[in-house]
Amino acid sequence: MGTLTVRPFEDYTVIDIETTGLKSSTDGITELSALRVRGGEAVDEFSTLVHPGMHIPSFITDLTGISDAMVRGKPRIGEVLPAYIAFLGDDVILGHNTAFDLRFIEDRCKRAGIDFSPMYTDTMKIGRALYPEMEHHRLSDLAYRFDVSYKGAHRALTDCRITAACYEAMKADAIRLGLDIAALRVSGIKPKYIKAADIVPDSTKADPACALYGKICVFTGFEGEKRREYMQLAADKGALLADRVTRKTHILIAAEVAGTSANLDKARDYEKRFGAPQIIGEREFISVMGGRA
User: Fold this and answer.
1) Dihedral over Cα of 36, 40, 42, 44: its sign
2) For 239-256, b where at least 16 C-beta lie within 10 A, e where not — what string?
3) DSSP of 236-271, one letter per residue?
4) Which of 101, 105, 123 is nearest to 115 (CA)?
């Protein structure tokens, strides 16, 4: 992974990708975009649909609008990656939850023998440090805070533009508040592990039509605020939360993380041997929750 920094930059390049799923090692890239910013203004862009070499799941199409038909005949990642990396050059990379995008890009660079280990910054981490009073720090939440249009989100180039606008707004806010972004502590503090017992469901929101209703669900790979947020959403819909995968587990919701986890390993073993639990990723979970992101 590249090197995280939170120093404010006037010149940088925003990245965003769309994918078929959460695992950089097995899922494919469907869209690759970048937006070059100079002096706080967008000056150039790079964007292309990419044939992922696999079927695009329906829940991904529902989320992004990108279908199998749209990527048919489009270049494979190996064909466009060199030009994409050349476009990024030596710029500082900006993204929202940047590590997700970089995992996919760095995985493809490694396969292609391309050296790529950039310095990067992250609007999600900066937002969490600047605005601890906000309940959530999703890109949609930051866009709402700064009155940035979220229309067309979940397409890579649009997300680049939204991310850049939020970053510029956060820099301006920091100046107004007399805060030093470079001094923000955004890493090095391990978030409190949220357990199932920490979540109190709101029974008034229970939804028998939800696919998670009445199902024993375990979350793995999520930390801190996001873990609490997702567990609360599931519990409110009527899911039965647990901390560890057992033979009784119905669904495991897994984050895209480096490596693996005991819960994920056990779920894969049980799924192979017994056909359960079902393993879903973050984007499918968001879709099940009604498209919240």
Assistant:
1) negative
2) bbbbeebeeebbbbbbbb
3) HHT-EEESS--TT--EEEE---SS--HHHHHHHHHH
4) 105
Sequential pLDDT tens for the chain (293 residues): 688 888 899 999 999 999 999 889 899 999 999 999 999 999 999 999 999 999 999 989 999 999 999 999 999 999 999 999 999 999 999 999 999 999 999 999 999 999 999 999 999 999 988 988 888 899 999 999 999 999 999 999 999 999 999 999 999 999 988 888 888 776 544 456 789 998 999 989 999 999 999 999 999 988 777 888 899 999 999 999 999 999 999 999 998 754 567 888 899 999 999 999 999 998 899 888 876 44
- Total Cβ atoms within 10 A of residue 82: 12
Two structure tokens written together for 283: 């984007």
Task: Set out the domains of the chain in order of their start, with CATH numbers.
Answer: 3-183 (3.30.420.10), 196-288 (3.40.50.10190)
254 phi/psi in degrees, rounded to 5: -115, 135
d(CA 256, CA 19): 12
Both structure tokens of 142: 């930051």
pTM of the model: 0.66
SS3 58: helix
Q: Catalytic one among 55, 137, 154, 250?
A: 154
Nearest C-alpha neighbor of 127 from the set 143, 112, 108, 111: 143
CA distance 210 to 229: 17
Q: Clarify whether 154 is annotated catalytic.
A: yes
Amino acid (1-letter code) at residue 253: I
Find out whether 31 and 64 touch, Cβ atoms under 8 Å. Answer: yes
